[in-house]
């Protein structure tokens, strides 16, 4: 007869394995229903359950159950491994430093934002939740001296978005039909030529998961329509993690996530205004026609997001 301890351990292992399996399923789910979309944010954590299940089943000598749990572990490793492996070297062209910052209704400390730009020698800055007051504060702190070209669409609250650049900007576009502002411009980078720069901020899934999925899909279409001859850089609070299939769909063409390119693993950016460390990575920098050589996060006092800073080596332009 099974002892109470053995029974409890078996139930625990079974539940842990089930949770891990659900995490794998959520990673591949394309549903825009509220529950699976929100739960997918925790899919990576859920997959860890399969490891616990495999260990406990092995200790209890349940061979079949151990094999099932190990299959789920293998699936989880297969899913997460690209985040740590990175990609082979490429590029060979000019190097750009790009920073993406969600400044929480413009309340991130402007002196810190500008000092990070200066210290890291940022060439392009994309900003989410940009307010008119924040634009003025950055100017007072000297941002326009370091990045003299900008295209901004500020708004009170969370809707504003902007681009600052060390290089001249042209072809500025603000895209219609989104809840928050989405903008792009073309930077003229000496030695490289035109570089398409995008600053996006789709709605969070807590707003409406169907709207969220639709906006991600439309933003993907915008990125795919960029001129194939020009490098592409996109900075955004995508309100989506690597475990959201709707986000990974953006990476099926020429675009790549810079954190995945360098094998940065879990790059947590949100939330930073709690007593616990950030739990998810929803802020990303994407690149097409180049490869990131380093990616890191930066704390911005006053914001609930960490900024992301990537150094990108663009592909050498054709002669």
UniProtKB/TrEMBL annotation:
InterPro entries, A to Z: Endo/exonu/phosph_ase_sf, Endo/exonuclease/phosphatase
Gene3D superfamilies in alphabetical order: Endonuclease/exonuclease/phosphatase
Example GO molecular function: endonuclease activity
Bilayer-spanning residue ranges: 37-57, 64-81
SUPFAM superfamilies with a match to the protein in the record: DNase I-like (SSF56219)
Domain Endonuclease/exonuclease/phosphatase, chain residue ranges per copy: 99-305
Keyword 4Fe-4S assigned: no
Alphabetic keyword roster: Endonuclease, Hydrolase, Membrane, Nuclease, Transmembrane, Transmembrane helix
Pfam families on file: Exo_endo_phos
Name by which UniProt lists this protein: Endonuclease/exonuclease/phosphatase family protein
Species whose genome carries this gene: Rhodococcus artemisiae
Source taxonomy: Bacteria, Bacillati, Actinomycetota, Actinomycetes, Mycobacteriales
């Amino acid at each position: 007869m099974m002892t109470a301890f053995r029974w409890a351990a078996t139930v625990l292992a079974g539940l842990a394995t089930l949770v891990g399996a659900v995490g794998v399923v959520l990673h591949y789910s394309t549903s825009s229903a509220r529950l699976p979309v929100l739960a997918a944010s925790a899919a990576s954590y859920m997959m860890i359950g399969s490891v616990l299940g495999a260990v406990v089943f092995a200790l209890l000598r349940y061979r079949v159950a151990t094999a099932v749990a190990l299959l789920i572990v293998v699936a989880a490793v297969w899913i997460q491994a690209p985040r740590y492996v990175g990609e082979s070297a490429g590029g060979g062209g000019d190097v750009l430093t790009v920073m993406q910052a969600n400044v929480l209704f413009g309340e991130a400390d402007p002196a810190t934002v500008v000092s990070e730009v200066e210290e890291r020698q940022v060439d392009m800055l994309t900003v989410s939740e940009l307010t008119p007051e924040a634009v003025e504060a950055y100017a007072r702190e000297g941002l326009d001296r370091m990045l003299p070209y900008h295209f901004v669409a500020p708004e009170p609250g969370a809707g504003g978005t902007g681009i600052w650049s060390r290089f001249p900007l042209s072809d500025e576009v603000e895209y219609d039909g989104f809840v928050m502002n989405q903008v792009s411009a073309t930077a003229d980078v000496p030695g490289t030529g035109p570089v398409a720069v995008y600053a996006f901020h789709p709605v969070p899934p807590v707003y409406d998961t169907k709207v969220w999925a639709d906006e991600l899909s439309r933003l993907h279409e915008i990125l795919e329509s960029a001129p194939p001859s020009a490098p592409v850089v996109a900075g955004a609070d995508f309100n989506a993690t690597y475990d959201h299939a709707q986000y990974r769909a953006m990476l099926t063409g020429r675009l790549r996530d810079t954190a995945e390119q360098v094998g940065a693993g879990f790059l947590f950016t949100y939330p930073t205004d709690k007593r616990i460390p950030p739990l998810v990575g929803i802020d990303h920098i994407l690149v097409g026609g180049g490869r990131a050589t380093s990616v890191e996060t930066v704390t911005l006092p006053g914001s609930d997001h960490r900024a992301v800073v990537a150094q990108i080596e663009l592909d050498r332009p054709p002669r």
